[in-house]
Amino acid sequence: MNEAKTPLLQVDHLSKFFAVKRTKLFEPRRQVHAVEDVSFTLYEGETLGIVGESGSGKSTLARAILALTPVTAGSVQYRGATITDFKNCDAGALRSEMQMIFQDPYASLNPKIKIGDAIAEPMRRYGFAKTAKEASVKVKELLQTIGLQPEVYDRYPHEFSGGQRQRIGIARALATQPRLLFCDESVSALDVSVQAQILNLFNELKAQRNLTYVFIGHDLAVVRYISDRILVMYLGKVMEIAPYDALFGQDTHPYTQALISAVPEPSVHHRQERILLTGDIPSPVDPPSGCRFCQRCFKAEARCFAEEPGFVEVGDGHYVRCHFAKGRCEG
Amino acid sequence: MPAIVEFKEYSMGFRDDDGKVFNLLDKVSFNVEPGRALGIVGESGCGKSMTSLSMMRLLPDAAVVQGGEILFEGKNLLQMSEGEMADIRGNRISMIFQEPMTALNPVLTIGFQIGETVRLHHPGLTAGQVQQRVMQVLEAVGISNPETRLAQYPHEFSGGMRQRVMIAMAMINEPALLVADEPTTALDVTVQAQILDLMRNLKGEGGLVVITHNLGVVAEICEEVVVMYAGRAVERGTLEAVFERPLHPYTKGLMASIPTIRSSKEPLYTIPGTVPTVYDFGPGCRFADRCAHCMACCRSEAPPTKQVTSDHLVQCWLEFGGGGIGR
User: Fold this and answer.
1) Which of B43, B242, B257, B261 best tests the A interface by mutation, with the highest count of A CBs <10 A?
2) What does pTM read for this prediction?
3) Domain range for residue B134?
């Protein structure tokens, strides 16, 4: 399954720091290390899941890749062309090829604009429909694809339920025929039965339109279900990149193990021994030296506090940033 | 053992601007026994929050009680005066809310806010005794350095710590019943695991009602479950009975539509359609439009409650032989 993959997006040592406002005159300048030294490759047609607690830099990473915020260091390549600096490239074409689906579909739709017009807008802007008439035909087709009646064209956002609004958000993102979709907590606000409908819709659309997804979430069960590979972030750094079926192995990062064990399972069986992490995620201002996770890690020893671990390849496409990880060649 | 709280065919609804009343909760019955935790699960709009607010008598102005009783330690809460209710709230029945940020006052110290509950219900205590009590309870919910912490303000606490403060505030008068409305929804999974662990340990001899949409949370801390759909308690029983042998088609559908950490990549089961709103409830079963087993009687008449085993009750016509139409 690994052969003949074409890289769509290549992220190289991407960092994004935010300056902290000084409160005293001679205070040293401090920075929030929101995203630090993140590298990964996204292949055409795959779904990459990004998980982590709040404050781990998931959303900032997506915004930095989409050039919605300037990056501090590193580069992003999309189909071989560097897009980190949007000024030097064809931003319009890129915007239409990369779209985002947000968490709260109500907040991301203008309450005064009919949903048909809201979907037609990006279509007209990027030249996928030349006339208003053509746009309305295409919007109605699109509404059917995502499971709504074409007649809803003339309705306003408040007339829809949360799940329907999320479908409209998806239609709007699909209007420009993107190749790459960023879903930032796109199902978190939905009820479980609606969440299942939307997750299935994501998978159907992926098969129909050969889409590539970056799926950001905090619910590990949902992210694992939808993703082919999973990237685990903690305090701005990637702790692990793993194929979805390798998450339960012995080789995973202690943080991933803790995240998995914290997910409450809707079953009276297999309640495994809990790994309870103490405390909260520390502040990304002045992150700990050594391993980012050392303060909360149940395996931590002196070395973890002193020295930052590098990536170790523990299996096929499975990388872990931990001193305890055993590389393949070492046995 | 007598139940701490007992809902007996409790019904309530809403009055709209024209004075017309729409029924929401329809003959909801369940009870909470001492030392037991009951989980109320359901999707948004199913009436689970209205159930919890009814227990506290904190319903919005448009709400109308339409019948039934809510017995707390044998006395009907619905008949009590406002004064009697004020003695119960925060003292005998406490509530933990979903948003720990909005439920705390940002301009008052944590110590003052927790102590307020004690001062109100125990006016005889001295300031020193109140502070002593606040420090004890902060320690009990796992907040270190209570002396320094009680002088701090809510913004100095993280989300998980704020939820611990809310629990401390609810626990301080050792209530007989603790109602937690989505206590961990706003928290990260790792912090959620800590809070669930804490709630399990603190439960003690009192009763606990957890209102949530997350079936995993229920499996984690509850012994009894009530599944609500569109204002009715469609299925209830022990955790094992409801989770292992679900009978109502809605419960089955709900369980099948959740991706778990171990599930395969097959398409998820989905319940067709959407939850009906208060304005279009029919006379029959409220799940009928979405149910794969819907029969003629399902649309005409609400299904009565069937006691399947001693610890498992369900409201579904299928359990009554289904009027001759096979499953």
Assistant:
1) B261
2) 0.87
3) 103-170
